[in-house]
Amino acid sequence: DIQMTQSPSSVSASVGDRVTITCRASQGISSWLAWYQQKPGKAPKLLIYAASSLQSGVPSRFSGSGSGTDFTLTISSLQPEDFATYYCQQANSFPQTFGQGTKVEIK
Amino acid sequence: QVQLVESGGGVVQPGGSLRLSCAASGFTFSSYGMHWVRQAPGKGLEWVAFIRYDGSNKYYADSVKGRFTISRDNSKNTLYLQMNSLRAEDTAVYYCAKDQATVTTYLGSDYWGQGTLVTVSS
After folding, report:
1. Which residues of chain A have a CB within 8 Å of the CB of B46?
2. Is A2 on the interface with B (CB under 8 A)?
3. Of B6, B18, B41, B44, which is least surrounded by CB within 10 A?
4. Residue B78 contacts by C-beta under 8 Å, 6 or more apart in sequence?
């Protein structure tokens, strides 16, 4: 099975900050990586698919990059509504696996 | 609009069984692969199972293989998860999720249900 490792596990940031989250796959997954945002008590929301494609309706301050084993999610200017937990997921092969999550907290 | 509504969660004793349902509407259910994903209290997301649009292929996480069965009834626009031999570690909110694309599962899940809580406890 492919293991997904996110870092950091949590980050404290202020409104307007640039935030970068990384995700590493234990083996190559081409570009088949998705990023989700989850707020407490809510279902996950798809932000980025195929590593760098912005899901419809998602603000352009979110961007994704990477291929192979190393990927990043960047929030260019953190907004109050962005405080949440973020997960990467590899969609290259079954079992599809998630990273352990990165909690973005208010500084 | 797309809606996924899970039901069937509840409290069950260890070793017991439960069947979850996910009623889909607002899209052509029979054209999309579907997933179950769970989240234990205070923990991260865990992918559980997937079924192709026509039910021809099914995949499972190692943690549930042999105990859980995913199925679908395209005539009823409904996804199911039959859970047998339940353990305390299966306690979680269970979400159903829709593949974004019809022909591939590579592009993530664009719609999710609200989740249904399964509690395994004596």
Report:
1. 98
2. no
3. B41
4. B21, B22, B23, B24, B29, B72
